[in-house]
Amino acid sequence: MTTMPPDGNLWFASANGAGRQPDAHARPSATEGTHARVGQQPAPRGSSPYAQPTEPSPVQYPRTALHPQDAALLRRSLDELAPVASEATGYFYSLLFVRNPELRSLFPLAMDVQRDRLFHALLTAAGLAEHPARFTEFLSQLGRGHRKYGTSPDQYPVFGECLLAAVSCWAPLSWDAATQAAWVRAYTAISQTMIDAAAEEARRAPAWWGAEIVDHRQRTPDVAEITLRTDRGYPFRAGQYAPVETPWWPRVWRHYSFASAQRGDGLLTFHVKAVAGGWVSTSLVRRARVGDVLRLGAPSGTMTVDHGDGSGLLCLGGGTGIAPIRALIEEIAVHGGRRPVEVFYGAHNRDDLYDLAELRIWEQRLGWLAVRPVVAAPPGSNGALPGLLPDAVRRFGPWHAFDGYLAGPPGLIRSGAEALLWSGIPQGRIRHDAVAELTGAG
After folding, report:
1. Where in the chain is the domain with CATH 3.40.50.80?
2. pLDDT under 50 in the chain at which residues?
3. pLDDT, tens digit (0-9, with 9 covering 90-100), for 242-252
4. Of the residues 14, 101, 228, 397, which has the maximum number of CB atoms within 10 A of its CB?
5. Right CATH number for 312-438 from 1.10.1040.10, 3.40.50.80, 3.40.50.720, 3.50.50.60?
6. Tens-digit pLDDT profile for residues 4-63
C-alpha cells in the first residue's frame, strides 16, 4: 500500500489510469482510487507508514493518551474535515473498496449510517486524546463491538492507510509532516487498543449470539414486544442495549434496549417501534414471527444502577424509551431496594402509553415507585399530565436528591438532559443512551 507524502502533495489516477496532479481548488471525487507519492513509485502493497498492529499485544496496551501537541494537530484536521465530512468518508470507503474489494462483504449495502458513525468515532477519539482512561474505554468498546462484523487484526493497517489518504486529501490546508506523524501515532494507538480489547473479549464471549423469537406481541399498531431465547448464556445489566441483526437485512445492526432485567429463564425482551424508512425496525414489528432467528451482539451502555447508592432515581422514558426504565425498576426490586423511583412516561397521545397499565400495577405493589404519564397532544385524561415531558419534570422539581435516567428519541435525550440540569441534578449524575447510537435506530 502507498504511504503518505510529508507535504500532502498527491497524485491521483483517473479512470483511464493517467496520472494528474489535483487542482489546488478542486476536490477529488469519491470514485478516484489510487494514491501515491509525488516523484516516487507506489510503496509495495502491504507496507505501512505506521506500526502494523496485526496481533494482540502480549500485555495489556498501556493506558496512555496522545501527546497534547498530537491531539491539537488531529483537531485541526478534523475541524477542516467537518464541512466536507460526507465527501471525505465517502472517499475513504471508495478507496478502501477499490484497493480491497474483498472487504465490501463486511459492510451493509446502504452505507449512510456507517459513514456517519465513522466520522463521529474519529471526532470522539480525537476529543478524548488527552484523557487516557476515557480514550481507552471508548476505543476498547469500539473494538469489542467490531467483532460482530468479522473484523480481524490484519485488516486494521488496510483501514489506516485509507484513513490517512482521505484525511490528507480532504484536509490539505492542515496536512504537513507533523500532522501526518500525529495521525500515524494516533491510528497506531487506536488500532492496537481496539485489537487488544477484542482479543480479551474473545476469550470469554462469542462475537455474536443466535436468538430465536419465542414470543411476538403487538402492543400498538407500530410497537411490538419481542421475547428471545439465546443459544447460550447472555449476561447483561438493566439499562443496557444490544445490537440486533435480522435475517432480512444482513450486516445491518440496530440497537435496542432490554425491556426486562436479567431473568432466571434466560429470556430477553425488547420493545421495538417501526419507524418510517426503518428497515430493521419495520421487519421486526411487521414481518418477524415466532421461530425466526436473529443475531445479537454484545451488550453495551452505562445507563445502569449502582445498587450501593441510596439516591433516588428520576426516570424519563419517551415512547419505547420506557423499556430500559422498566428494566431498571425490575432490577431494583430484585435487589430489594427501597430507594424512591419517580417515572415520567411520555408519549404523543394516550394511546401510545402502551405500558402504562402494567406500570400502574407495579406502582400499587411497590411503595417506592411513582409513575406520572405525560401526553403532548391535549387533552390529558385519566391522570395524564398535558404537555412535554421535560416541562413536566421541571414543574415537579427540584430533584437535587435524585440521579437522572433518560431513554427515548435523540430530541428527548437532549431536552431532557437540559431539564434535569435545570432541576438540580449535576451532569455527572445524569445517565442516558448514546445519542450517536440512537440516530441509527431504524
Report:
1. 312-438
2. 1-54, 57-63, 438-440
3. 999 999 998 88
4. 228
5. 3.40.50.80
6. 333 222 222 222 233 333 333 344 443 343 333 223 333 333 444 444 444 554 434 344
Cα–Cα distance, 261 to 269 (Å, whole number): 9
Omega prior to 409 cis, within 30 of 0: no
DSSP class per residue in 377-408: SSPP-TTPEES-HHHHHHHH---TTEEEEEES
CA trace torsion 196, 197, 198, 204 (10° rounding) = 110
In CATH, the number for domain 209-296 is 2.40.30.10
Q: What pLDDT is attached to residue 39? A: 30
Predicted model pTM: 0.74
CATH architecture of 10-202: Orthogonal Bundle (1.10)
Cβ neighbours, 10 Å, residue 351: 11
Cell of 4: 503518505
Strand pairing of 241-245 and 209-220?
Answer: unpaired
Measured at the CA of 414, the angle between CA 412 and CA 419, to 5 degrees, comes to: 85
